[in-house]
Structures are given as structure tokens and as C-alpha cells.
Amino acid sequence: MQSDKGCQRLDTFGAFADKEGMTRSLGSALTPALVDRLSQRDITRRLGTALPFVTVDPEGRPHPMLLSYLEIRAYDSGTVGLVIGARTRSARNLAERGTATLLAIEPDVTVYVKLRVVDGPLPVADSGEYGLGYFLLAVEEVLEDAAADWEGGMRITSAVRYAPPPALDEPWARATLAALAEPRARA
Question: Domain 21-150+164-179: which topology?
Fold first, then answer.
């Protein structure tokens, strides 16, 4: 395959497409284990772990951001709530293009959750200076990634981490948790 600059590009997909491993679709719903992981039931244990979240910018390019488990919540296998800055590029991308991918890349799980906006951004009460917005998202596809046989047992050894984890009694954290308590959309 040739690029515009005359350089030879490696067709890695074609080279490995018939091998065992790589990503496989788990369907159009979160598994029970993913619902539990994203439910905020064990929020204090999950704080400190970052979740990459990718929207699409106006030029069609991926636009990444990092979320914490505090900012996202699965209500059931098909519905997820998200609270982020309402005036951020990611919020604008979600509102304008309506799609995103959530990545959970940790030693015990590597999944990519493709999402579509149902509604948002909706105002978040008591978010004051933080200007938070709530999005209701529908799960469209869940992909699981695993090492291929030829990768020799390589695996994810740690999650993306941040410190210090937020205190749940901080005003923005309380507003975020309250906004995610129940799914909501405009009537």
C-alpha cells in the first residue's frame, strides 16, 4: 500500500486478520460484569483509575480525554450516564456528532464501549463554577480485546492511574454523583 509521499505502509490488519485473538464483539449491550464495574457501587475502590474516552472532532479525528469512574455510570446494560465540563471540546463533540468510545484498559479487562448520545448536555445542579453537563448515552457495541496467540501471552499489567483520587465530599464530586444518580433526558 502506497501513501501520498511514496512510502510503503505495512498492512498490519491484513497480516494478522486471520489470527486468533484481537478484538471480538460482545454485542450491543454491556455484560453484567461491565454494568457492575461502571455502576459506581464500588466507587471508592475504582477512584484513581482513568478511563480513556474518545469523541470525534469537527475534522473527523479522534479527540481523547480521560474520565474517572466518578464521572460515568452504567444504569443497565444499554444505558450510561456521563458528567463532564459542559463547555469542553469533548462535550461539544458529543453534542454535535453524537458518538464516543469509552475504553476500560485494566489488567482484568480490556473493552471498548461504543456509545451514542440520547440527550445532553443537560445542566447539573449545584455544579456552580465547574459548569458540568450531563449526557445520557446508549450502548451501541461492546468490543473485547485480547492478546493474539502470536503475541506470546502479552497482557495489560496496569491501568492508567492518577493521584490523588478526588474526595467524594468535594462540591464538584457531590454534584456529579447527584447528577448520575438516575438516568434523565428532556421530555
Answer: Pnp Oxidase; Chain A (2.30.110)
Between CA 178 and CA 173 the distance in angstroms is 8
Helix runs in the chain, H state only: 12-16, 32-37, 43-46, 89-97, 171-179
The three three-digit cell numbers of residue 54, written as one number = 474518545
The predicted pLDDT at position 148 comes to 80
The residue ranges of DSSP E strands in 58-98, in sequence order, are 62-68, 72-76, 79-85
User: What pLDDT score does 146 carry?
Assistant: 84
Question: What is the sign, positive or negative, of the torsion defined by CA atoms of 101, 160, 77, 182?
Answer: negative
End-to-end Cα spacing for the chain:
50
User: What is the dihedral angle through the alpha carbons of 19, 23, 28, 29, rounded to the nearest 10 degrees?
Assistant: 130
pTM: 0.86
Number of H-type helices and E-type strands within the chain: 5, 8
Q: Is the pLDDT of residue 15 over 90?
A: no
Q: How far apart are CA 22 and CA 12, in angstroms?
A: 12
Query: Structural domain boundaries of the chain?
Result: 21-150+164-179
Kindly state the DSSP code that residue 161 receives in the 8-state scheme.
Answer: B
Reading the block at residue 71, the C-alpha cell is 464521572
